[in-house]
Recover the amino acids of this structure.
């Protein structure tokens, strides 16, 4: 590894004697230093970004140290600043720290104390720079995932599909099955990349969510149609149960469809052949919804308890189930329940983390109920879109 370049420090003080002593002491400790006699000169010298730290006197002719500090921050200059003054007051310290100083020293100061503060400020800045670099690398990685990996896989899926459809020559049933299975594996990778990117976007607060009223029953019906082939291929029965209700919910259609898709993919993955999966979608009055056991780890958004009715979307399966102690953790990123089938069937443990973030962005809640060996049920409660629910129109009517 190349030796680290010495850090450059700018001493900004109109008192040349103090600056000279400080300069000598810091240079003895291996720093490269320079001196500016006033704030204006300091701003010019800091402009080229060569300094990692400025030690700045508050009281100087021309612009004050505090003003210079504010201008440094306004200009977005990447330099840590330690303020020093002979006339300290609590208000001044607060103003300096609020304006972006990393430390504050009262004159007269001991040179050793100043050296310790310099070392600390330089180390903290290096840590921030390292963190920012890692953050940038992470963003580059996600950019690479979405463009350099996802796009070619999508092209591979398209090509295999053309073959599977027999457009490049006859394909027998067995070959078509193999090609279909290749497409499904590629789709799994695409879904995993999508979950990874979206969890990252949600966490960075940069997820574009387009909320509009939709009928959840329509989203559910489309999902069942989409996954009926995969369920059949795995030998499990997939059914849809809706109450014909026209209640709407305020969601991002694409995200909501992916939430349901993730739950169905899981149900298919964790239900052995011969089992069954039910996607159900119904409107429930709040009195009834409260009778549904919302677990303590599931924190509803503000005002949720005052709502009159909800849409309840649930995916239940007759699969292996999830041990009780894992039920809240499976919604965390990269968490998989210790479940032999889960490990065999792969996955990153991101699907449910994505579901939770998406459902919460619609002001809803999601949780799981399960008994190991007796199947699982994933339940989503979403507020009804105002004016579209039967419960609101007929408040006395009890619905299932
Ligand atoms: N229907 C289910 N039956 C049994 N276990 C489940 C079910 N759904 C989820 N799990 C458990 O919860 C874990 C987390 O699910 P999640 O969807 O987040 O991750 P994954 O399916 O393992 O991977 P990914 O979704 O990223 O491909 C699973 O690994 C599994 O252990
Ligand atoms: Mg999953």
């Amino acid at each position: 590894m190349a030796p680290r370049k010495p850090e450059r420090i700018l001493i900004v003080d109109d008192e040349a004697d103090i600056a000279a002593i400080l300069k000598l002491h810091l240079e003895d400790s291996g720093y490269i230093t320079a001196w500016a006699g006033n704030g204006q000169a300091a701003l010019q010298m800091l402009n080229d970004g060569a300094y990692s730290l400025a030690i700045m006197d508050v009281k100087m002719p021309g612009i004050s140290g505090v003003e210079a500090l504010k201008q440094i921050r306004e200009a977005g200059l990447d330099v840590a600043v330690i303020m020093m003054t002979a006339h300290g007051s609590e208000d001044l310290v607060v103003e300096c720290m609020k304006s972006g100083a990393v430390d504050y020293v009262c004159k007269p100061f001991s040179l050793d104390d100043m050296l310790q503060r310099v070392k600390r400020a330089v180390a903290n800045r290096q840590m921030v720079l390292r963190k920012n670099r890692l953050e940038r690398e992470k963003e580059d990685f996600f950019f690479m995932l979405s463009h350099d990996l996802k796009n070619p896989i999508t092209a591979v899926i398209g090509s295999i599909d053309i073959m599977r459809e027999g457009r490049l020559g006859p394909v027998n049933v067995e070959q078509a099955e193999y090609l279909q299975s290749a497409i499904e594996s590629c789709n799994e990778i695409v879904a995993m990349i999508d979950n990874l990117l979206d969890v990252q976007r949600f966490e960075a607060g940069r997820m574009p969510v387009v909320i509009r009223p939709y009928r959840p029953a329509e989203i559910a019906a489309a999902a069942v149609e989409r996954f009926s082939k995969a369920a059949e291929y795995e030998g499990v029965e997939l059914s849809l149960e809706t109450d014909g209700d026209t209640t709407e919910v305020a969601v991002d259609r694409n995200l909501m469809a992916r939430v349901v898709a993730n739950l169905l993919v899981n149900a298919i993955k964790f239900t052995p052949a011969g089992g069954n999966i039910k996607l159900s979608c119904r409107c429930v009055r709040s009195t009834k919804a409260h009778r549904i056991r919302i677990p303590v780890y599931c924190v509803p958004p503000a005002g949720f308890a005052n709502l009159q009715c909800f849409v309840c979307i649930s995916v239940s399966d007759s699969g292996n189930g999830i041990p009780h102690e894992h039920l809240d953790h499976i919604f965390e990123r990269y968490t998989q329940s210790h479940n032999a089938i889960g490990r065999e069937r792969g996955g990153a443990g991101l699907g449910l983390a994505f579901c939770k973030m998406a459902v919460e962005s619609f002001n809803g809640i999601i949780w799981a109920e399960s008994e190991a060996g007796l199947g699982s049920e994933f339940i989503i409660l979403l507020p009804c879109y105002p004016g579209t629910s039967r419960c609101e129109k007929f408040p006395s009517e009890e619905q299932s």
Summary: Residues 395-400 have pLDDT under 50 and may be disordered. The first helix runs from residue 16 to 28. Residues 262, 265-266, 347, 351 surround magnesium ion (ligand 2) (CB under 6 Å).
